[in-house]
Specification:
The structure holds two protein chains of two kinds.
Chain A: H1 4-9, H2 18-27, E1 46-49, H3 53-66, E2 71-74, E3 90-91, H4 98-112, H5 114-118, E4 129-133, H6 136-151, E5 157-159, H7 161-167, E6 183-187, E7 191-192, H8 195-208, E8 212-214, E9 219-225, E10 228-234, E11 237-240, E12 243-246, H9 252-258, E13 266-275, E14 285-288, E15 293-297, E16 303-309, H10 321-334, E17 343-353, E18 360-363, E19 369-373, H11 383-396, H12 410-413, H13 420-423
Chain B: E1 3-6, E2 10-13, E3 18-22, H1 34-42, E4 50-56, E5 64-70, E6 75-81
Antiparallel strand pairs in B: 1-2, 3-4, 4-5, 5-6
Classes of the chains: A alpha/beta, B mainly beta.
Chain lengths: 427, 88
């Protein structure tokens, strides 16, 4: 394995440390940019379309684990401007299928060591994660998930209302609540992280290993010849490449169409909102599938609310009043004490939904054209493991066991993965 | 608020409607191959721009209609009644 700290010194910026912070503080010296702005070459070994956490992590692990550094990451906007900067930054691995649990647990493991590995403070806060059950049916699913989780070695258990009250004193656990709380799936290793920092950390580390990051570079076409990908066309000129990876989430079908590959993906917006900051009072992440809402408190004290996807497919990221009203009502049903809090802002991100709520990873019918898409509402928490496994896929030409269940061919063969019970709140 | 011009009820809030999805042809279940059928089940064009799709006015006249909508802006150009489900 490559020693990233030594490589990190080469072309990239100096290491971040308390001493460096002090030195910059007393000398008033400007910080170097965290990554370079290189010239766009006419050829790369690997072109990754999409500069979010998935694309950047894939580039980073290609360089770090496999020594493949002739890699370009292209983004039509700025790095982390899509789903990576619009999610609600929640991490967890308490999924429903063994495939999902193993996969996300590896992601959580990578996230835990990420700050040290990337020399970037990604602010992972292991707060614990509560998924509330308001009905016998959801309690049954929680029990199912807990048992699958335990078999896979993931800390996860069903707890009752009194234990929930101990963890979240502001929660209304009385029978008078509109949706009384019967229990919850408690997942202590879950938590939140600073999502922008994850993007910047991967970008800086990939850049220091020699990867080229190109922002404002939109892919407008993909060249395929005799069933093999040969390169991409961009708004800044053509690039030859034997391998092209599509990591464009909500825009995944548009990019795949350029290569003549059809994906079973539909794009739905997902809206979220954040309140003004208040003193820390909410220790854990709280999720309610019945109420279509998840709540967590950031390190700054703001409450972040997320919801399920909008009821119809769209590429528009404009928010709606209906959403805000519904979200506020649902949050107050859980925690009535928040009635006086004001919302600061709301936004939407695009989710690439698949029919079975599991991702689509690996080869397509076109040689050299790989996809890392179909992430739906849970792409951010998969970033590191998706990068690691996609890098392995690119470097070795083989599909790693961890993602073998997520191939595109599962739809034509009828082998769906069925992660809906644990992947989304809106069902 | 997004208004859908229901041909029966006039412009109504999109919240009143159920989203059925983009128009696609259903293959004949008797003669279709497994591949065609699964493509029909799972593949969508997922257009970024103008597309024709089916909606259901579940909190109004409870009829199906066809809507032209720009998926990048949610602008709606026209809607016509689409009573025959088999045509979708």
């Amino acid at each position: 394995m490559v020693d990233v700290r030594r490589l990190g010194r080469r072309p990239g910026p100096a290491r971040y440390s308390a001493v460096a912070l002090l030195r910059h503080g007393v000398t008033d010296r400007a910080w170097e940019p965290a990554w370079r702005t290189p010239e766009l070459r006419r050829r790369y070994d690997v072109v990754i379309v999409g500069g979010g956490v998935h694309g950047l992590a894939t580039a980073y692990y290609l360089a770090r684990n496999h020594g493949i550094t002739d890699v370009a990451v292209l983004d039509k906007g700025y790095l982390g401007g899509g789903g990576s900067g619009r999610n609600t930054a929640i991490l967890r691995s308490n999924y429903l299928t063994p495939e999902g649990v193993r996969f996300y647990d590896r992601s959580l493991e990578l996230y835990r060591g990420l700050a040290t590995e990337l020399n970037f403070n990604v602010m992972f806060s292991r707060k614990g994660h509560l998924t509330l059950a308001h009905s016998d049916a959801s309690l049954r699913t929680m029990r199912w998930r807990a048992e699958v989780n335990k078999v896979c070695g993931v800390e996860s258990d069903v707890i009752g209302p009194s234990d929930i009250k101990r963890l979240v004193p502001h929660m209304d656990i009385t029978d008078e609540a509109r949706y009384p709380i019967l229990g919850a799936l408690y997942h202590p290793p879950g938590g939140i992280i600073r999502h922008d920092a994850v993007v910047w950390g991967y970008a800086r580390a990939a850049d220091s290993l020699g990867v080229h990051l190109h922002q404002d570079t939109e892919v407008t076409g993909i060249d395929v010849s005799a069933g093999r990908v040969t390169g991409v066309r961009t708004t800044r000129g053509d690039i030859a490449a034997p391998i092209v990876v599509n990591a464009t989430a909500g825009w995944a079908t548009l990019v795949a169409d350029m290569a003549g590959v059809r994906l079973p993906v539909q794009t739905f917006p997902l809206q979220a909102a954040v309140t003004e900051p208040v003193k820390p009072f909410l220790r854990t992440v709280v999720v309610s599938g019945t109420l279509h809402v998840y709540v967590s408190q950031t390190a700054r004290g703001e409450l972040v609310f997320g919801a399920s996807v909008d009821p119809f497919a769209s590429y528009s990221t404009r928010g709606s009043l209906e959403f805000t009203e519904g979200l506020a009502a649902h949050v107050l049903a859980l925690m009535p004490a928040l009635a006086k809090l004001r919302l600061l802002r709301q936004w939407a991100g695009l989710c690439d939904m698949t029919p079975d709520f599991a991702p689509i990873m690996g080869p397509t019918g076109v040689d050299g054209f790989l996809v890392d898409v179909g992430w739906g509402t849970y792409g951010f928490k998969a970033g590191p493991v998706a990068g690691e496994t996609m890098a392995e896929c690119v470097a070795t030409g083989r599909t790693p066991d961890l993602i073998s269940a997520f191939g595109l061919d599962r739809f034509s063969q009828g082998r769906l993965v069925g992660e809906k019970g644990a992947a989304a709140v809106g069902h | 608020m997004i208004l859908l011009p229901c041909p029966w009820c006039g412009p109504r809030d999109a919240e009143e409607f159920g989203y059925v999805g983009e128009m696609r042809a259903r293959p004949d279940p008797v003669t279709t191959t497994m591949k065609e059928w699964r493509d029909y089940l799972y593949l969508r064009r997922n257009v970024a721009g103008w597309t024709t799709e089916r909606w259901y006015h579940q909190m109004g006249c409870r009829r199906y209609l066809l809507v032209d909508r720009d998926t990048t802006t949610n602008e709606v150009r026209s809607a016509v009644s689409g009573p025959d489900r088999q045509k979708s």
